[in-house]
Amino acid sequence: xxxxxxxxxxxxxxxxxxxxxxxxxxxxxxxxxxxxxxxxxxxxxxxxxxxxxxxxxxxxxxxxxxxxxxxxxxxxxxxxxxxxxxxxxxxxxxxxxxxxxxxxxxxxxxxxxxxxxxxxxxxxxxxxxxxxxxxxxxxxxxxxxxxxxxxxxxxxxxxxxxxxxxxxxxxxxxxxxxxxxxxxxxxxxxxxxxxxxxxxxxxxxxxxxxxxxxxxxxxxxxxxxxxxxxxxxxxxxxxxxxxxxxxxxxxxxxxxxxxxxxxxxxxxxxxxxxxxxxxxxxxxxxxxxxxxxxxxxxxxxxxxxxxxxxxxxxxxxxxxxxxxxxxxxxxxxxxxxxxxxxxxxxxxxxxxxxxxxxxxxxxxxxxxxxxxxxxxxxxxxxxxxxxxxxxxxxxxxxxxxxxxxxxxxxxxxxxxxxxxxxxxxxxxxxxxxxxxxxxxxxxxxxxxxxxxxxxxxxxxxxxxxxxxxxxxxxxxxxxxxxxxxxxxxxxxxxxxxxxxxxxxxxxxxxxxxxxxxxxxxxxxxxxxxxxxxxxxxxxxxxxxxxxxxxxxxxxxxxxxxxxxxxxxxxxxxxxxxxxxxxxxxxxxxxxxxxxxxxxxxxxxxxxxxxxxxxxxxxxxxxxxxxxxxxxxxxxxxxxxxxxxxxxxxxxxxxxxxxxxxxxxxxxxxxxxxxxxxxxxxxxxxxxxxxxxxxxxxxxxxxxxxxxxxxxxxxxxxxxxxxxxxxxxxxxxxxxxxxxxxxxxxxxxxxxxxxxxxxxxxxxxxxxxxxxxxxxxxxxxxxxxxxxxxxxxxxxxxxxxxxxxxxxxxxxxxxxxxxxxxxxxxxxxxxxxxxxxxxxxxxxxxxxxxxxx
Length: 852
Known about the structure:
This protein is α+β, with helices and mostly antiparallel strands. Helix content is 35%, strand content 19%. The protein has a 4-stranded parallel sheet, covered by helices on one side. α2 links the parallel β1 and β2. α18 packs across α19. The radius of gyration is 35 Å and the shape is globular.
């Protein structure tokens, strides 16, 4: 008899066997229903963290259960492999980004395989491989020809010392370059955009169809798209042949406009500045250029502005209003201009008070007497119009319609729907990204690289310094090419694509990963898509998911597929948190290895008492747990079981070594149940069962029912593991160990355990005498008859005191229950010859005898 559970040996053995069996290869049997289970693929940083383990284990359990339930399952894995860290590694360590990336991929793939994740590795993709980005470029050209990819000028972060463009992540909180320390400037560069705004309404509308997404995520996307219904109004500039156009959701307040504000980036800002104000305006624009968008729009930051010296005419009341420029108005939002109505907008009110601008009340709360008091704050709710000319006395909603109609009739405005969503800027002045397949010709303009010349591959001989233009822009021999249309000298586009492009279609490539003639065959994508269950972090709730939805819709409209949404169901797993020690005085985190007293921890350097709490695992906080260390000590199955058991999947999980030990003990208990001296029966239960057999069989089928429900969604992996523990306890307490019912219960426990602890379940399945693989077994069905309780306990009381209990038929009526209670040995012993004056029967619960 095998007495010791050795997870390292068990797991290594079965991982090897499964690979030889090709157990996880995607089945192509069209006769079975399809199920697509997908985790958000990782950036290959080189090491897995516990957040990865949680994400991938959740999806793996779902995939394994669906296979056992008869589905053909697509469960792939790949690598979101382009990005800035690889380029930084090239600069800092002299390692080529490709070498660094593929080394990391090899390391992380091995880690994933040690977790026993049932991936179809034949479908593995890496977005940095030319076989993948060839099709990324092909899809870009589809969007380009459809008018969905275009160029325009946009601001970038510019390091004036290193003379290079910086990503937002390379600018610190003080607005300085991470490398040179220089104050970062904003510069306009001609860059590529995707016209995601063309799909704004559909992206918003179709959120209603995603009823298996968390409401929180749908709300975040709706807010990001930001639909507003209002009016576009124009204010003629005095002395200029131009108008300032604004969008407002409150046209009912237009009579309260006391100034206009242009964004510093607005083309009219310098154009309308008077000679006297131009130096002030230019100095202000220079200051704003150094500010981030986040700084400019922060609620707790004073709004700053200067007058341009220009004036505009309010066409609704004929008044002249000053034109300002201010940092809180952004050129890329709306029209890049706003009308200032300080009496009825909180931000405008503060700005007007700061710069002593007029504040005119034009809306009063309903029910007021019409007395207009000086305002101490903005009134932003609907009400009744005052000081509003012909629209005086109208209620806000009616006034919005009437004022907009008047504006349209006068040629100074119209009703408009506007979205907060902006077109997607995809240009990156980087090397390690997908090259944009465009050639710029002085005569022909931007020209698509011919398809037979794809992919446009990244050159390998590149000098990485972190200074000057992007590495590709410095390679004249690479960028200088003839125009595909006219043959004259031209140059390649030297920007690369935002890495979000790569992750916006990878789920489509998985459906047909080895297709060498097209990105995917429509029939295969239409067969597998949408993804039935997508699992990933809440941090991707907006950009990745929104871009993927846009790509799917855009490619649908190009005739490449027929689905409209990429992900049917979404699970956003909670974070994995570790015990954290922090000095509240200095703000420094302290490594646990430096803590000598866990009851009253102090800073070893200052002696300050430390705050102790759970926080998201992070190297900088010294609270991480290395998955490799856990697997080495307990095995992958224990790590999986703990991750699944500790908390519901959408909640944050607090790491606890004691609970890891608990799961290891549970798996050892299951091991011992199987490795008994006398092997359990392999026959099926039949004939009349004893009470003990009935109890165990009921526990078996209750476990099947509960675990199946927990794995049907919404997923409750933690309670499913609890049900496995209950069945294990029932087996441990059972006396019918030689019965076929016991054998059935043990087989069922191993099968139900298989998705959670796949290696151990496979080992135990073989130990029970069955051929591999337990993962090829059908998911067990519930026998309704086994759940039927034919006998129930009935408590016997005398004068309100419990004296014992008996088993009675579950179908016994009230009178029968009293009779059986009177006849019971318990009642006879405690009643004796005492006369019974009264009998109280609580059907199915108890019988109480009252004696005289």
